[in-house]
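Much of what follows relies on a compact textual record of a protein's fold. Each token is a code from a learned vocabulary of local backbone shapes. The record below shows the convention in full.
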Amino acid sequence: MNLHKLEALLGANQVVANENNSKYSLQQGYFQPTREPLPIAYVKSIEELAEVLQLATIEKWAVIPVGGGTKLKIGNPPKRADFFLSLAQMNQILEHEAADLTTTVQAGCGFAHFQGSLGQLGQYLPLNPPFAKSA
């Protein structure tokens, strides 16, 4: 896999080749037990996400999308993985209609951040997920 293409697309600061301290690195042995840690690409917008997925399709790269990384070991491990695609920076609450009890959030919006935002208006999402601080 050519990381330079991802770096040219996103910028070098959004592509990390060996992030051993990453919350994802603890899970990586499950995906690629004999390889170096997988690179992580961080996207900040829907446009960047679309561009990365388009490049991955052209290059035939296998992508593992991740948010909080709390459930990476659920299910069968993928047969192939070239990089993690982190949605953690896509964490905005886009719209909140308190009177209608509806909210639109980006894919990387964390549960704790979301609950905190709702709590400011006396609302909450009635869920109690495990690992709520990182989910």
Residues 91-135 form one domain. The beta strands are 15-16, 40-42, 63-66, 83-86, 93-97, 102-105. The mean pLDDT is 86. The chain has two domains: 3-86, 91-135.
